[in-house]
Amino acid sequence: MLQFKGKGVYPASLFKRQQVQVCRRQVKDTQAEIERVKAAKQKAMQQLCGLYEKALKEAGEESAQIFEIHKMMLEDEDYSGSIQNIINTQAVNGEYAVAVTADNFSDMFGAMDDEYMQSRAADVRDISNRLIACMTDTGCTNSSFTEKAVIIADDLAPSETALLDKDKVLAFVTASGSSNSHTAILAASMNIPAVVGVGKDILQNVRDGQTVIVNGITGQITLEPEDYPSEEEQFKAYKSVLENMAGKRVIIRTLDIGADKQIDYFKLEKEDNPALGLRAIRLCLTRPQIFETQLRALYRASVYGKLGIMFPMITSVKELERIDRLCSKVKKELADEGIPFAQTVETGIMIETPAAAMISDRLAAMVDFFSVGTNDLTQYTLACDRQNAAVEQFVDTHHEAVLRLIELSAKNAHAGGSWIGICGELAADLSLTEYFLRIGIDELSVSPPFILPLRDKIRSIDLSK
Ligand code: PEP
Ligand code: MG
After folding, report:
1. 68: three-class secondary structure by DSSP
2. Which of 46, 103, 178, 422 is buried most, with the most CB atoms less than 10 Å from its CB?
């Protein structure tokens, strides 16, 4: 079994693959079949170029190379020779010749001693399925999920993994597969929590829509998890992160659900305008019991490293005062119970609303840091629901209004003695890096595939000019 970073708690969705039945057919014109295979190969090559580009963007150069390897496999003389040989000697259709070649080659790889070579069997099957799909004009897979989900599959081919919509697929679990598979490598670089090779039982035990927790760190899969995570569970999770970061700053955002982030067990009322509704800090302040449990767990864990606590969706000074009172209450309780907590915990807020940016001078005096959530800040500034594809054409992520609000927040943060970072998607937008540095952004928080390109970009900028 193999695990990757991250955790996903979402409804399960069983992966549906379009099955192509390959039949053996006698043919008279073997040369015409060979030409059909060649034409399909050209089409497959084009598709692999597309996959390479997609993987390059989403998973980085190293992972994208997987599809260069697929192209090489498709061009391999032994592989093509075998297909032609079967067509010529048996006078059969191309699809059948490809399927038999795929079986032979994947059996051969599977029988090798070397684990890495064994895993190449999946690549041969992947390119062969692509070739057959091109010959029969069928799609390779059906991976069009409309809702966020944990995908449960017998196995996923590397190309199927690359085609997953990262915004919808929050984790996946496969019955077979190994840590050396290109699927596993891709999932890791696409930052999708994944547990592979858990055995066939999973396919029988999970139903579509059932809630599943996939813990990509421990490999644990929990079906229909109970209630809210307890203080103890949260404490252990935070402690482990802090210990693993060995004294480096760890910022943990408090509960940020509602609107685009739903969790079934909260049983949130359906709202007409969820983005303007009871979400993030509003939910915490409405259900203080849940918030206090999280704060207790956070403060208890604070002695294991350098913790910062960050509050999402702030719009007013009043909210911060209420948060402050709850933090003081929790700290007093812990002190009364003789439970240690660090005195140096930084607190910060996310600048995700125009309101927070506009009053950032007042807010800066109350916290240690700001972190600009550009996804929500853009949504609320431009009045474009981030979930609504119909208004996507009206979203200008470089809109002057958004940039001015960030600039204002940076100015006020520094004037109030706070530091400021950006943690929304815009932090990874290299065309804005120089601008962010010039307006005094102190930190850019990006997901792992963007770290090296961003570092490279920052090093290329000469701020003295
Ligand atoms: C943001 O809004 O930019 C952000 C970082 O938070 P999320 O995307 O999780 O709402
Ligand atoms: Mg947000």
Report:
1. helix
2. 422
- The residues near 95 (Cβ < 8 Å, ≥ 6 apart) are 20, 22, 23, 132, 135, 136
Distance CA 79, CA 76 (A): 5
Q: Among residues 180, 170, 257, 246, which one has the least CA distance to residue 215?
A: 170
Q: Is 174 within 8 Å of 199 (Cβ atoms)? A: no
Q: Which atom of ligand 1 is nearest to the CA of 376?
A: 2
Of 140, 182, 284, 327, the active-site residue reads 182
Question: Phi and psi at residue 195, in whole multiples of 5°?
Answer: -125, 120
User: Is 182 labeled as catalytic in the residue annotation?
Assistant: yes
Given this model, what pLDDT does residue 217 score?
75
Residue 52 pLDDT grade (very low, low, confident, very high; cuts 50, 70, 90): very high
The pLDDT of 432-445, averaged and rounded, is: 98
Secondary structure element (H or E) that encloses residue 354, with its range: helix 354-358
How is residue 93 written in tokens? 């259709």
DSSP 366-434: T-SEEEE-HHHHHHHHHT--TT-GGGGGG--TT-HHHHHHHHHHHHHHHHTT-EEEE-SGGGG-GGGHH
Summarize pLDDT for 127-163 with one digit per residue, the tens: 999 999 999 887 655 455 667 788 898 888 888 888 8
In this structure, are residues 234 and 259 in contact, taking their beta carbons and an 8 Å threshold? no
Token digits of residue 106: 């994947």
* Pair 68, 35: CB distance under 8 Å: no
pTM surpassing 0.85?
no
Cβ neighbors of 424 (< 8 A, separation 6 or more) are: 352, 372, 373, 374, 375, 376, 377, 378
Residue closest by Cα to atom 1 of ligand 1: 373
Helix (H, G, I), strand (E, B) or coil at 138: coil
Active-site residue flag, 423: yes
Residues with CB under 6 A from ligand 1: 256, 352, 373-376, 423-424
CB distance 180 to 115 below 8 Å: yes
Q: Note the pLDDT tens digit of each residue in 12-51.
A: 888 877 777 899 999 999 999 999 999 999 999 999 999 9
pLDDT tens-place string over residues 248-293: 999 999 999 988 887 777 778 888 899 999 999 999 999 999 999 9
Out of 134, 284, 327, 423, which one is annotated catalytic?
423
Distance 396 CA to ligand 1 centre (A): 16
